[in-house]
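Q: Joint fold for the lines below.
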Amino acid sequence: MAQIRALIFDVFGTLVDWRRGVARDAQAALAPLGLDGDWEGFADDWRAQYQPAMAEVRTGRIPYRKLDLLHRRNLDLVLRARGWDGAVDETTRAHLNLAWHRLDAWPDVGPGLAALRQRFLLAPCSNGHIALMVALARHNGWHWDAVLGAELAQDYKPQPVVYQAAVAALGCAPEEVLMVAAHTDDLQAAAAAGLRTAHVARPFEKGPGGGETGPTAPVDWAAADLVELARTLGG
Amino acid sequence: MAQIRALIFDVFGTLVDWRRGVARDAQAALAPLGLDGDWEGFADDWRAQYQPAMAEVRTGRIPYRKLDLLHRRNLDLVLRARGWDGAVDETTRAHLNLAWHRLDAWPDVGPGLAALRQRFLLAPCSNGHIALMVALARHNGWHWDAVLGAELAQDYKPQPVVYQAAVAALGCAPEEVLMVAAHTDDLQAAAAAGLRTAHVARPFEKGPGGGETGPTAPVDWAAADLVELARTLGG
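A: Joint structure:
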């Protein structure tokens, strides 16, 4: 079996708690305007537009554009659906759209990445673009070797080219790269591209009971969190 | 004047001493085979093929390929020119070609980058590809926010697209990005793309008296080294 040289990571849900982070920023931005809501529901509604927006790029209906632009279009949709279109000005929307740049990591991520970095090259392989990954790394104190993912490939996961472009940029063979994610479908697509796979449980990703507690299809490794994964891999 | 948000760096010559590093590795690989030479001259000859090889990509005669592949073609040319073709086997060539992954930084680079990182986003904008930049960062203990440059742009400096792709990936306006290099021509190309420019002196890049002691055309800042640049910028 080939030696693993690099680990690449899904980010939203796997490394950062998007639901509580977006809910917090939505409340901070919108509650002062007199708008009232279930802010985690607001985050869920915003996130629900994520896959449909990327599907337009994946199918070639629109050219690749950075996730900030898809997030912004989706935010406008969510505000309109709530009847809040007239209440939220451009400045507030632009600021709130960057909530995705300010998400906090799950507590195991900092120590887990630091341990894994002793032994492996590390890079995000997210649908977020480079500037967004840079912002999240600064916000959470992560040290990536490179920032890979959708922007490098000019397409969105689970398109094979996103995993293939990451592998090629690292100068590795596919089987030397381990994809880490809390989403089985992401790992299945990585495996189909020849990568190895590790699942981490994120039972709270979509609120209590709303995340994967384990893989729903075979993977090479499954761990409760990144610290356990580092121990398992000897990182 | 716009606030500077990010610094992007030339690498070969500006951050690392390619001449002594390549000479050291060439001696280590080739002297045991009974080959004898002026090893810094060997490094110079190898480096002399660098611009002509990239020119083939820039002019569209060949598609973009990673610098490792150009370096390898150039190494074969240099060995042949010395009549050493039969003496150096494939394994030795493949190992020696990675001398460019093992170059040591000038002594100010570590502390200079650490100081600048307190205030600015930092990324290489080199003609070296991502895997090569990752290797040099690991070898020298640097912490980049992202790895930008030729591979992202699929072309070689001084083509404008290389600077433009770096600026776009950072989500910055051109005037918010400062290009740092020891080569005036690199800075002139960056300035033409709208970036700001800082020259650092590398008087020993090509041996004693063989590097730029200062810019030969106007730049926004000029410094003796990165520590001085960090002080000047308040980093």
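Q: Anything notable?
A: The first helix of chain A runs from residue 18 to 30. Residues 88 and 176 of chain A are 48 Å apart (CA to CA).
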